[in-house]
Amino acid sequence: MTHYDLIVIGTGSGNSIVDDRFDDLSVAIIEQGLFGGTCLNTGCIPTKMFVYAAEVARTARDSSRYGVDAHVDGVRWPDIRERVFGRIDPIESDGRSYRSERLPNVTVYPEHAEFTGRRELTTAGGRVLTADRFVIAAGSRVIVPDIDGLDAAAVGAPGSRIHSSDTVMRLAELPGSMIVLGGGYIAAEMAHVFSALGTSMTVVARSAPLLRHQDAAIAERFTECARESWDVHLNAQVTAVRTGSDGVEVDYRSADGAVTTLAADTLLLASGRRPSGDLLRADNAGIDMHADGRIAVDEFQRVLSGGTAQDDVFALGDVCSPYQLKHVANHEARVVQANLIDPDHLTASDHRYVPSAVFTHPQIASVGLTEQEAHDDGRSYVVATHDYGAVAYGWALEDTTGFVKLLADRDSGQLIGAHILGPEASMIIQPLIQAMSFGLDAKAMAHGQYWIHPALPEVIENALLKLDLPG
Amino acid sequence: MTHYDLIVIGTGSGNSIVDDRFDDLSVAIIEQGLFGGTCLNTGCIPTKMFVYAAEVARTARDSSRYGVDAHVDGVRWPDIRERVFGRIDPIESDGRSYRSERLPNVTVYPEHAEFTGRRELTTAGGRVLTADRFVIAAGSRVIVPDIDGLDAAAVGAPGSRIHSSDTVMRLAELPGSMIVLGGGYIAAEMAHVFSALGTSMTVVARSAPLLRHQDAAIAERFTECARESWDVHLNAQVTAVRTGSDGVEVDYRSADGAVTTLAADTLLLASGRRPSGDLLRADNAGIDMHADGRIAVDEFQRVLSGGTAQDDVFALGDVCSPYQLKHVANHEARVVQANLIDPDHLTASDHRYVPSAVFTHPQIASVGLTEQEAHDDGRSYVVATHDYGAVAYGWALEDTTGFVKLLADRDSGQLIGAHILGPEASMIIQPLIQAMSFGLDAKAMAHGQYWIHPALPEVIENALLKLDLPG
């Protein structure tokens, strides 16, 4: 049995906690997978690199309506893949070797571990580790849905035609055709990437519309746009998957009972991600779990046991957070770090205004309440929308689908939700996040600053001006 | 002699003043040129439409480094031109007919007018107009430099090879080659448009670097980038222009006295714009003028006569403003409108944090002080820069030249300047404008809100975090 001052499980955002302020502590870091976690290796970062290449291809293909006759001769998928992973993989290995070799006070266990007691872990190699304090940052994992004919072990295996987001970006060749199972953001981003690069795309989702957790206006508009590029099947209950030498087949049942069979070269499973507390056997540590598998934490990121916050065990990121978002995990990691360093003055997490973006086509960004949520909360609100096509930069873009939708509290004038679909949504939403975070009301935001003419943020300005607020 | 309650000279931002709150007043509107002014007809709006087409062409041409092999077969210049002006010209004529025909209390004089007395105008057609109150919103005009061989009457004439921004976007054909005289933002935008669309580009500027009013770091980086795409000649004193049947020739003298001759199909004059108060004979109205030709106004946009603010004459926009920017003119128009409606409670203009963007390649946006200005003001400041290439979205863009430079007051922690060169600079600067306008300090701005990972605004976040500020 080896005892440490601190054990950190997981090297996504968890890897940012131990800095030189921890030099006097003995630390164990446990990582069964890739150093850097989901975001770096299979999530945000590589996907956005693929997305931008997809945007370039799409821009070239769509150029004629701007009076430019460009065409795409071809896409060098292996070059795209090597550019992305040639950049990322060294970061993974550098992070691993830095932690493993350069820090005398840190020991890395590159293997699985489980709680085998309240404050005891046992590694796959049989080592028993204890510690004064623990940080659980074990993240989440791809859900493999339970479908007839779908062998979980085959997903992402070498030569397999069935992949998840863990492996699909490392395919040897660009598939000629692909079926994506899922209607969430991973499905939307991957379908965009592959279809823009030239893969014939079919999307199959259990419900409707696509991206149904977005504000309904956004989800509906997005689904319309998706149908123009992809073969979209909604309200589809997938009943069977079959793989053959030349591809995959998927059967689904519609609401009316009819069964449809779809075929493609490759199948991508994008049914979401599950927090990994169960694999850690957090139950053996007496840690409370939510019904959806998340570890329960308080506002200081302390885990709960029997409803009581534990001073010696913290959790952060996907393993406990309702937001499977890197910027939230990073924030929670900073909170945990602060609370490890100064346990007498605990810092609370700020989950008030958590934005997110979907890097699909058209791009989507949102923060705060959807209109449905505002309605369900009984809020008194005003709503305004403004089209990209109604501002000068939208004319330049020849945009016909983008819009901004804002919700504000009728009494206070504060923004309570912002939803954007259109080019660079993830960029132009930032002033709205800032206004919400610092309590700047919508009218002051519109009138109290300059908006560069004719830059795209004018679409935000105009939506703000439309909010029917007093004063 | 016809007397009005109000005369508005100019229909750029000035055209927005008269709304239904002026229905009880008799109003004359004087416009010698195009309705809608520079921005709509020859400035911001058409240029940005051309710029986006240029971006599309450039993206296609640069695609190979993203693993996408696209190429540009051709550019349909007449289609681009018709798309732009097919959209803009009807707005001009609709604006004209609305003002001329649909408002019983408004008379439009589509002709030149000059002050022929302190409160008396005479139109080119010989009508004498007086009014209780005047709004001077006559804008600015292209400067035609005094160069040997350059006939001002030939600039922009049908069939001429010499153009200004007033006419160059309406050329019949895309020139094979072009010389741009000028090193400011109009030169930078037009050179970008034409070169990206396929014109061989030469830029000749009197001083160095290009865009020398920007922060020096921005101007220098931009000049380096420009040299990669254009033939750039700096510190060049143009001494002669010659036009022949097959093109134009330009002679310039370098600092060492050497004379160089350049040749191209087309010459674009981009030496700046001059306020038009002189053409109005504002001197006859006793209005004070700055040395640079601007009408002098106070903070309520009232013109000055002998240093005294006049309650009955307002000015706004390029004719009086040190900022030749549409968003400033619009702001000043709202101020003038408010002060016409409620003269007993005057509203002041807010010129504290005026941003601007240059839609060239790479794009540039800035607000507040340059480092040189901060230094000259004796400010105690800290500075930080962060490269696009050092954030995840910059990796996706494969950006190697973009950066953000921030200046903050060392004592207050408030931002005093922000300068961005790189993709979508005009979008990602908005949160910085907002922070400066509402007094949000740099540290709070960085830490007190979420920044979507991995969206481009992270480059702002990281620059903020680098500012060496206490607390």
From TrEMBL, chains A, B:
<dbReference type="GO" id="GO:0050660">
    <property type="term" value="F:flavin adenine dinucleotide binding"/>
</dbReference>
<feature type="domain" description="Pyridine nucleotide-disulphide oxidoreductase dimerisation">
    <location>
        <begin position="354"/>
        <end position="463"/>
    </location>
</feature>
<keyword id="KW-0521">NADP</keyword>
<dbReference type="InterPro" id="IPR036188">
    <property type="entry name" value="FAD/NAD-bd_sf"/>
</dbReference>
<dbReference type="InterPro" id="IPR017817">
    <property type="entry name" value="Mycothione_reductase"/>
</dbReference>
<keyword id="KW-0274">FAD</keyword>
<keyword id="KW-0560">Oxidoreductase</keyword>
<dbReference type="InterPro" id="IPR023753">
    <property type="entry name" value="FAD/NAD-binding_dom"/>
</dbReference>
<dbReference type="InterPro" id="IPR012999">
    <property type="entry name" value="Pyr_OxRdtase_I_AS"/>
</dbReference>
<dbReference type="Pfam" id="PF07992">
    <property type="entry name" value="Pyr_redox_2"/>
</dbReference>
<dbReference type="Pfam" id="PF02852">
    <property type="entry name" value="Pyr_redox_dim"/>
</dbReference>
<feature type="binding site">
    <location>
        <position position="272"/>
    </location>
    <ligand>
        <name>NAD(+)</name>
    </ligand>
</feature>
<dbReference type="InterPro" id="IPR004099">
    <property type="entry name" value="Pyr_nucl-diS_OxRdtase_dimer"/>
</dbReference>
<keyword id="KW-0676">Redox-active center</keyword>
<dbReference type="InterPro" id="IPR016156">
    <property type="entry name" value="FAD/NAD-linked_Rdtase_dimer_sf"/>
</dbReference>
<comment type="similarity">
    <text>Belongs to the class-I pyridine nucleotide-disulfide oxidoreductase family.</text>
</comment>
<dbReference type="GO" id="GO:0050627">
    <property type="term" value="F:mycothione reductase [NAD(P)H] activity"/>
</dbReference>
<feature type="active site" description="Proton acceptor">
    <location>
        <position position="453"/>
    </location>
</feature>
<keyword id="KW-0547">Nucleotide-binding</keyword>
<keyword id="KW-0285">Flavoprotein</keyword>
<dbReference type="InterPro" id="IPR001100">
    <property type="entry name" value="Pyr_nuc-diS_OxRdtase"/>
</dbReference>
<feature type="binding site">
    <location>
        <position position="48"/>
    </location>
    <ligand>
        <name>FAD</name>
    </ligand>
</feature>
<keyword id="KW-0520">NAD</keyword>
<feature type="binding site">
    <location>
        <position position="318"/>
    </location>
    <ligand>
        <name>FAD</name>
    </ligand>
</feature>
<feature type="binding site">
    <location>
        <begin position="182"/>
        <end position="189"/>
    </location>
    <ligand>
        <name>NAD(+)</name>
    </ligand>
</feature>
<protein>
    <submittedName>
        <fullName>Mycothione reductase</fullName>
        <ecNumber>1.8.1.15</ecNumber>
    </submittedName>
</protein>
<feature type="disulfide bond" description="Redox-active">
    <location>
        <begin position="39"/>
        <end position="44"/>
    </location>
</feature>
<dbReference type="GO" id="GO:0003955">
    <property type="term" value="F:NAD(P)H dehydrogenase (quinone) activity"/>
</dbReference>
<keyword id="KW-1015">Disulfide bond</keyword>
<feature type="domain" description="FAD/NAD(P)-binding">
    <location>
        <begin position="4"/>
        <end position="332"/>
    </location>
</feature>
